[in-house]
Amino acid sequence: MDYNPLLPAVQNNPYPYYAELRDKAPVAWIAPMQAWAVSRYSDVDFALRNPRLFSSGLWNTAASGDLVAVPEAPGLLSMDPPDHTRMRKLANKGFTPRLIREMEPRVKKITQDLLKPMAGVTEADIVPTLTVPLPIIVIAEMLGIELARQADFKRWSDALVQTLNRPTDETVRTEIRRNIAEFRAYLENMIQRRRTEPSNDLITAFVQAEEEHQTLTSIEILGLTVLLLAAGNETTTNLIGNALLALLNHPDELARVRADRASVPALVEEALRYDSPVQVVFRQATQDVELAGGKIPAGATVLLLLGAANRDERKFPEPDRFEVARNPQDHVSFGYGIHYCLGAPLARLQGRTALEALLFDCPPFTTTLAQPPRIAAFLVRGPRTLPLRFAA
Ligand code: HEM
Questions:
Q1: Pocket test for ligand 1, best of 282, 306, 334 (most atoms within 8 A of CB)
Q2: What are the residue boundaries of the structural domains of the chain, listed by start?
Q3: pTM of the predicted structure, to 2 decimals
Q4: Over 70: is that where the pLDDT of 258 sits?
Q5: 328: which residues sit within 8 A by CB, 6+ positions away?
Q6: Is residue 232 lining ligand 1, measured as CB closer than 6 Å?
Q7: Is 227 a pocket residue for ligand 1 (Cβ < 6 Å)?
Q8: What pLDDT digit, counting tens, does each position of 271-311 carry?
Q9: For domain 65-276+320-381, which architecture applies?
Q10: Are 48 and 336 within 8 A, CB to CB?
Q11: Do 291 and 313 contact (CB within 8 A), yes or no?
């Protein structure tokens, strides 16, 4: 069984491959990726905790090749300390717990508005109706994008997500570049405006963010905004899709959650562990590193398999069982340490809100497709489509 994350069969169900990697080759050379894969929880955890040994510098190019939207400045995700430390402190100012709490009524309202057209409908694909638009509308509102530009914004954000799959088709690449250029022009203008006309939005928070006399430059704000879109939309979509799919394939668990609304936060955590929306993060070894008996040479690309770590039986008993009551607090779906997901509270809020609305405000549902096709990507994991059938 050869683990090649570029193959559709592996992307469809990577878990048997991960199990074999953890048992037989916890640090393995993956030729098609020209990288070392790390699959056991303790080793992934170790690498995440040691940014000095495992640099994030490769992230941009490893994920997107040469289609980088803001090449002028390295993004937060691909920075190492001390640059990362400064930038992260400033970025945190836009994602305070208070700000996320304040978003709650809006997230609920957006969810209800998206579900409204489904009233009385017996069958609907929940991916285009709810899970895709929800995070895009939420982040558009947080950034302060005008309503009239929200359709453009969707197109721009799709283009950014596409860069992560390293497209090779020249027509596709040209289209992506055109969208990125448009998006940049729009945002650059907006960042300038917010400097003189502050508003109650994220761009303003970034413009005003100051820590020890340091502020963010316009190009850094642009980079951060692009990262929020690339990192926050498809991931949140997949969290909701994966959670629903896990429930539909485990009717006992579905019944238990339905009987106890307070278990929804635990559902979100177990869904994150069981089927991680981000399967892999990139690192680069800064020196020769011994890990799980293997030796990773200095300079090598390293894939930390979050999805494999979350199913490690050395950490989680019976890891292939989906069990909401487990309520795991130490899965690595949001990473760990200095790069821990900036948007985790926002993702959790959206996950909880969407699942509560579907489970408690809609008629009971089943799916007509228990094994839907997965998104064709090795980095992210989620159903491409999820048709639900609602009881009349
Ligand atoms: C379920 C949804 C999400 C998942 C599974 C997820 C996962 C992750 C992971 C694994 C990392 C760490 C990457 C690394 O260590 O190299 C990360 C970082 C990050 N995420 Fe998320 N994310 C989600 C939602 C969001 C949202 C909604 C936003 C913002 C709107 C966001 C913004 C970011 C940013 C800015 C970083 C970089 C932080 C840093 O490098 O310091 N994410 N995310």
A1: 334
A2: 65-276+320-381
A3: 0.95
A4: yes
A5: 269, 270, 272, 273, 316
A6: yes
A7: yes
A8: 999 999 999 999 999 999 999 989 999 999 999 999 999 99
A9: Orthogonal Bundle (1.10)
A10: yes
A11: no
